[in-house]
Specification:
It comes from Tautonia sociabilis. This is Tetratricopeptide repeat protein. By secondary structure, the protein is mainly α. It folds into two domains: 91 residues, Alpha Horseshoe (Leucine-rich Repeat Variant); 114 residues, Tetratricopeptide repeat domain (Serine Threonine Protein Phosphatase 5, Tetratricopeptide repeat, Alpha Horseshoe), CATH 1.25.40.
Length: 288
C-alpha cells in the first residue's frame, strides 16, 4: 500500500488489498528452510534488558533474516512470548526487537494489537514501518472466525478476477453474517469504487473506520472517493488523519500540499477592447 494515488485511479490503500493476500500469506511450504532451530546460548533470556546480553527475540529475528524460515521463527516465539509481551516489545529501543515483535504479531496477534502495530507506522526505522503495514493487513484479514475469514478470501479472489458484482454480493452476505467484520466492508468498498459507485464506497469506508480507526486503507479509499465526488474539502481532512498515522509518508504529504495550495484561477480571456470614442455633437458638453 502506498499513499500515492494508483496510476489506474484505484482507491488509496484499497486496491492493493488483493495483492496483499500473497504478500501476507508468507512463503509457500516448499520454500521454507528445513534447518532445525537450535536454541541460542542461555544468556539470550526473555527479559533481554540486562547489559551485555543478547535479546532473545532479536536473536530469533536474526535467524529469520538469515534463513528466511518463518515457520521456525514462529515456533521459537510462540512458547516464549505472550501477545501482551510482544505488544510491549514493539516499543523496544532495539530496532531488531521491534522488527521481530511486529513480525510475530502480524502472524500471531489478534485484533487487539491494532494500536501497537499502528503506532509502528510512525517508527523511525523504515523496515519496521513496512513490517507494521503488512502486519496490520494480516491481522485485519483474519479478524473474524476461520469460516468468515475464508469467506473474505473468496471475496478477494472474486475481486482479483474482476468479478466485481459477485464480489460485492459475497461481501454483503459476509457482512450479514459478521456485521462487525471491518475488512468485509472494506472489500465491498473496493468493489463499489471499481464499479464507479463512489458514494456507496465512501459509506462502506466510513463504516470500516467506525470499526477500525487505524485502517489506513479505508482512510485512503474514503479520501479518493471524496475526490471522485468532487469534494476535495472532505478529502483533505481524511488525508491529514492518515498522515497522523503515517508521518513519514512523503507521497501523502505531497497530496495534502496539493490540496492545500492556492485555488486555481480560471484562464484569462482576451484583453477587453476599449470602447470607441463618442462623436462630438452640439448637445454634448464635452464638445465645448
Amino acid at each position: 500500500m502506498t499513499p500515492d494515488p494508483s496510476p489506474i485511479g484505484l482507491p488509496l490503500g484499497m486496491a492493493p488489498a488483493v495483492a496483499l493476500v500473497v504478500v501476507l500469506a508468507g512463503p509457500p511450504p516448499s520454500s521454507l528452510a528445513v534447518a532445525v532451530a537450535v536454541d541460542p546460548p542461555e544468556e539470550g533470556i526473555a527479559t533481554m534488558n540486562e547489559p551485555g546480553r543478547q535479546p532473545l527475540l532479536a536473536y530469533y529475528f536474526d535467524r529469520l533474516e538469515r534463513d528466511g524460515d518463518l515457520d521456525t521463527f514462529l515456533d521459537l516465539v510462540k512458547p516464549r512470548y505472550t501477545e501482551g509481551t510482544l505488544r510491549r516489545l514493539v516499543h523496544a529501543p532495539d530496532v531488531r526487537v521491534r522488527r521481530a515483535a511486529v513480525t510475530a504479531l502480524g502472524q500471531l496477534g489478534g485484533f487487539g494489537c491494532n494500536p501497537e502495530l499502528a503506532s509502528r507506522l510512525a517508527d523511525p526505522d523504515p523496515v519496521v514501518r513496512d513490517l507494521a503495514r503488512n502486519a496490520l493487513w494480516s491481522v485485519w484479514f483474519r479478524a473474524d472466525s476461520p469460516e468468515n475469514n475464508e469467506r473474505l478470501r473468496t471475496v478477494i479472489d472474486l475481486l482479483g478476477h474482476g468479478r466485481l458484482d459477485a464480489a460485492s454480493r459475497a461481501a454483503t452476505e459476509l457482512i450479514a453474517r459478521a456485521p462487525n467484520f471491518a475488512e468485509a466492508y472494506n472489500q465491498r468498498a473496493v468493489a463499489a469504487y471499481l464499479l464507479g459507485n463512489y458514494a456507496e464506497s465512501a459509506a462502506d469506508c466510513r463504516r470500516v473506520l467506525e470499526l477500525n480507526p487505524y485502517h489506513i486503507g479505508a482512510l485512503g479509499g474514503l479520501a479518493q472517493c471524496y475526490l471522485q465526488l468532487d469534494r476535495p474539502d472532505l478529502a483533505l481532512p481524511v488525508f491529514k488523519r492518515s498522515l497522523e498515522l503515517q508521518p513519514h509518508d512523503d507521497g501523502l504529504r505531497r497530496l495534502i500540499a496539493s490540496l492545500e495550495g492556492p485555488p486555481r484561477l480560471p484562464p484569462a480571456g482576451p484583453p477587453a477592447r476599449p470602447s470607441p470614442p463618442r462623436d462630438a455633437s452640439p448637445n454634448d458638453p464635452s464638445a465645448d
